[in-house]
Amino acid sequence: METAGKSVPTIPGNTFLYQLKRKLPYIISYGILAVTTLPVIFMYLWLIIQSFASNMKYGLIPEGFSLENWEFLWTNIVYKGAELPSIWTATWNSLFFAGMLTVLEVLIGVMAGYALSRLTFPGREQILKITMILHAFPSIALLIATFYILNFMSLYDSLFGVVLVKTALQIPMTTWIIKGFFDDVSWDLEWAGLIDGCSRIKVWFRIVLPQVKPGIASVSIFSFLSGWSEFLLLYTFIVSNENVTLASFLQRLTSDPNMVNYGVLSAISLFYLIPVLVFFIFTQKSLMKANVGGVKKV
Amino acid sequence: MKVELQNITKSFDKKTNTIDNMNLTIEDGEFVALLGPSGCGKTTTMLMIAGIYKPNEGAIYFDGEKVNDLEPKDREIGMVFQSYALYPHMTVLNNIAFPLKQQKVPKKERLERAKEAAEMVQLGHLLNRKPSELSGGQQQRVALARAIVKRPKLLLLDEPMSNLDASLRIEMRAEISRLQKKLGITTILITHDQEEAMTLADRIALMKDGRIVQFDTPMNLYNEPDNVYVAKFIGTPPMNLVEGKIMYNKLQIDKQTYPMDKSRFHLEHGKEVILGMRPYDIQLGWTEEIRFLGKIELLESIGHSKIIHANVFGKRLQLFAKQDFQAEIGAEVRFSVQPAAIHLFDKKTGKSLRKAAPYGDEMFVKDAALQ
Amino acid sequence: MKTVINKWKLPAVMLGPFLILIFLFFFVPVILTGILAFTNMDSAMNWEFNRLLNFEKLFSDPDISLILRNTLLYVLFTLCINVFFGLTLALLTTYFMKKEQFSLLFRTIWMLPRMTPPVIYALLWIWFFDPSEYGLLNGIRSLFGLPPVNIIGTEPMLIIILANGVIGASFGMIIFSSAIKSIPEDLFYAANIDGAPHWSIIKDIIMPAIRWPFMFVTLWQLLSLLTSYEYILLITNGGPLNESEVLALYSYHKAFQSFEFGYGAAISLVLVVIALVCTLILWKLFKVKDMIGPSRID
């Protein structure tokens, strides 16, 4: 009675120190993120600025705008006294490579994924196990033997040959992911199709396939991008100028330390990066999902 | 269409039989329910009739013709799935017309028939919607329309109402009953809900562990259960079961003895038995011949009446009382039952001791006796 | 008999291309690598068996101790960055960051290096550490009047560890984030109400939930780091003077630069054996029997 109304209990939330203490972990975490992320942002920012600048001060500040660096689009670059093939040849080859890869990978992956998800046949379990082991298998260690095989099949220095190799290297993973999509389609739906008069193959095409379309789309994008980005296989198995792709094109210019012209390099990089950026911006969310969806299952 | 299952056995892992030597005959135009707890093999049985699973042994006949190797699409059946299995990428109309499209029915006729089927389930106004835009009840109607549109000779319903809420369920029950009568189509319904089975089916096949325990009309299942398992499964609240022993034509429970009707039951001196009494058959007060004295353990009000849980011989029995029945917990209660209303089962085999009872299967009840 | 053929026909057609690719570019290469390792095949492509000579050569190779040391450093430190930085990023973006748009933005930025074609990614690092004043680092140093430094030349291992670390960290980030996100919200609420501090929530709620993803990422990255060398090839090419050469890259160089295919295959074989052991461990740990469920249509 005597102290009622007088003693105000201290509410810790009122003190500045308390608020600071509460928010500190968040402030620190934003801080860490900002500091670590900044260099990454800088790198990509530089690509854009450098390609349109005539000269760069301190490596990052542009002096004057120019399109000089983009001349490679209409004239062929002369390098080590020899003229490099046109950028458009390389672009076309990259498109062909990535496109072929996507078609083959998705086609084969969808067929095999469905079979593994839904059909009964002897050896199914073994194939599944092999698929799982292979998708962790370091295929890159087999490059020498692959070279021998390509040579044997007269597919050395052929884009199609490399498409086959790349498809093979990615198909266990792709098939596994697609199998996961098929696993999610309800059996009721497939049974309903059978009862409604479809054959097994027709059910697959008419009923089941439309359900996994979004999944197939993201797998397609993924495989296109990985084809577009491919370097090592093309660098190893492609030698002739007419089969050059953007990756090798850029790498040839980068690898000579005496002749580094960052203006041109950044312009070509940016040009090469366009599809990646476009896909990345538009499909960022679903890509993340496909990425996770594939691996989460392991 | 008449459907016959002869000695059907189905196993998925070569060790245990999901369906074990099943025999079942369904007459033309009949509505049969496969009733049983989950995992008893109902759906497996239905999928075998549909042709999606193939039996390991035995034969399935449609109108006397063996159909074991017939593909589902050639069996002239329609089916409604528990999840409805509507094709999410097609509109309602296309969903319904889909089976006809597979039969290569010309487009005009196809759409007409699909619309007609949609009308039949009162869906005429929703034809252009996608399944995801429909309510559960509407989806169910689409599934039903899709199942009947090709005028199948056999309609299979796999727990069609388990995803609906209570009021919709009663509405759909009436709808299905009406359609089945109107089309006169042989129908098999899977359900774990005994009320659904009782109200809809002409005959019910009660299943347990891959076998049919009793196949009979709903009333016979209720009034004359062939064994303890059926007695326990059919009826809510379930039948009261008390263990006892036959002593010279009388039933002895604890120290009490009760007269038994010799003309109704096989009474064998010394046999251990189970006495069954439906809660509805028990009267309050000692008005009938078989009398009990119990202690009230719980009193539940269910609106139109009350359920008394009474403890007799250490067992808890349930019986009904009027809405206005009042009593203290722990109070004594007297109740009785007519000799004509009781059931008697062999404790060892679970089989009914009723004189008219057919020779039953003994295996069910080893464990089912009193769990 | 007819039904037996029918039962086989569909799976055979659907799996055919998949199996052919796997056979051609996984099985044959593994066997071929095993055989090639015991030959001294060179650019003339002749089969000449030399028994264990390649392996004896490997053990007496003057560079081998340096290469093994590099491999160990590379794998160990990169793995640490992958796992711990990945975990940090995941924690910061999922747990500490309350705004979904922000965390998505940060994760998107961190995904960029992974999506960028390797050639461009390597170029960005080369530019960042360019020894001339055109590089970002030296540009900034010149701002303060400091002389340019050549870090790629003096500390090549540091650069390749950082470059690979960032790429791998985004992999860890994705897996960990999705694992953290799958923890029921209620758990965090309950912990908050109970007054648990951040570190205790991390220790008692988050860490137990990502135990398996953690193991998975560690083993998976270990496996891929052992055998991957694409970024090293692009940034330092193992130089200067083998200072950043790792075993996998050494095998590549031996085969495709010195054309000692036999010797290269022998080194690959060593890697394949190590990788196989890792794969088997991965397989044993993450056994997923339920994913190999049988078909439900006879």
UniProtKB/TrEMBL annotation, chain A:
It holds the Pfam family BPD_transp_1. It comes from the Bacteria. Signal peptide: none annotated. Residues 91-283 form the ABC transmembrane type-1 domain. It is found in: Cell membrane. The chain crosses the membrane at residues 27-49, 95-116, 128-153, 159-178, 216-239, 259-282. One of its GO terms (biological process) is maltodextrin transmembrane transport. Belongs to the binding-protein-dependent transport system permease family. MalFG subfamily. This is Sugar ABC transporter permease. Keywords: Cell membrane, Membrane, Sugar transport, Transmembrane, Transmembrane helix, Transport. It comes from Compostibacillus humi. It is a multi-pass membrane protein. GO terms for cellular component: plasma membrane. GO terms for molecular function: ABC-type maltose transporter activity.
From TrEMBL, chain B:
This is Sugar ABC transporter ATP-binding protein. SMART domains: AAA. Residues 3-234 form the ABC transporter domain. One of its GO terms (molecular function) is ATP binding. Keywords: ATP-binding, Cell membrane, Membrane, Nucleotide-binding, Translocase, Transport. GO terms for biological process: carbohydrate transport. GO terms for cellular component: ATP-binding cassette (ABC) transporter complex, substrate-binding subunit-containing. InterPro entries: AAA+_ATPase (IPR003593), ABC_transporter-like_ATP-bd (IPR003439), ABC_transporter-like_CS (IPR017871), ABC_transpr_MalK-like (IPR015855), ABC_transpr_MalK/UgpC-like (IPR047641), Mo/tungstate-bd_C_term_dom (IPR008995), NA-bd_OB-fold (IPR012340), OB_MalK-like (IPR040582).
UniProtKB/TrEMBL annotation, chain C:
It is found in: Cell membrane. One of its GO terms (cellular component) is plasma membrane. Pfam families: BPD_transp_1. It is a multi-pass membrane protein. It comes from the Bacteria. InterPro entries: ABC_transporter_permease (IPR051393), MetI-like (IPR000515), MetI-like_sf (IPR035906). Its main location: membrane. The chain crosses the membrane at residues 12-38, 72-97, 109-128, 157-176, 212-232, 261-286. Belongs to the binding-protein-dependent transport system permease family. This is Sugar ABC transporter permease. It comes from Compostibacillus humi.
